[in-house]
Amino acid sequence: MIILGAGGAARAVLHALLARKAQEIIVLNRTPSNAQTLVNWFSEKTAQTNLIADNISQFAHYAPQTDFLVNTSSVGLNNTKFDNLKLAALPAHALVHDIVYTPLITPLLADAKTMGLQVADGLGMLLHQAAPGFEKWFANKPVVDSTLRQLVLKSL
User: Fold this and answer.
1) How far is Cα 73 from Cα 7, in angstroms, rounded to an integer?
2) Percent of the chain, pLDDT > 90?
3) Short-list 149, 136, 142, 94, CA closest to 116
4) Taking CA atoms, which of 2, 8, 68, 95 is between 20 and 30 Å from 111?
5) DSSP assignment of 82-135, as one string?
6) β 118-120/95-98 pair status
7) Interhelix angle for 123-138 vs 146-155, to 10°?
């Protein structure tokens, strides 16, 4: 699994992947020291998962063995795009996920779709993140389903 980015969202995604007992997680970032700091913090808490930190320029090296790629960086907002990210190096079964939800289909997801890869947009993360807060405020837990997704999509 590859995580692009090393900020707070990357920390949350890394935590979730570790909870699901991922075998190997590679954190790639423009600033490798930030990726290394994140990996070091989690390495102290797990011995089951091989954690690697590297520069995003090394994406093509890790991509051929990747089942899941998630972008947690701000790249994708305002239709920005990664420079030189070789998505063609991913295997045909890889899932590409972008936590950005505006635009819903980021340039990363559009490129992945063009290549025939499976994609997942960031709206699901938004909905599942919002549900606990809504429940605390209104004492009513919303059901995150396709109906709620469509309702939120209409407002975007």
Assistant:
1) 7
2) 77
3) 94
4) 8
5) -SS--GGGS-TT-EEEE---SSSS-HHHHHHHHTT-EEE-THHHHHHHHHHHHH
6) parallel
7) 100
Reduce the DSSP state of residue 49 to 3 states and report it.
coil
Reduced to 3 states (helix: H, G, I; strand: E, B; else coil), residue 154 is helix
Strand pairing category for 68-71 and 50-55: unpaired
Tokens representing 76? 């994708």
Residue with tokens 């994609």: 119
pTM for the predicted model, two decimal places: 0.91
Per residue in 5-52, pLDDT (tens digit) is: 999 999 999 999 999 999 999 999 999 999 999 999 999 878 789 999
Which of 25, 13, 14, 76 is CA-nearest to residue 53? Answer: 25
Could you tell me how many residues make up the chain? 156
Which structure tokens are listed for 81?
A: 């795009």
The Cα 28–Cα 49 span in angstroms is 16
Q: In whole angstroms, what is the distance from residue 51 CA to residue 38 CA?
A: 10
Q: Domains of the chain (ranges plus CATH)?
A: 2-121 (3.40.50.720), 123-156 (no CATH)
The Cα 114–Cα 116 span in angstroms is 5
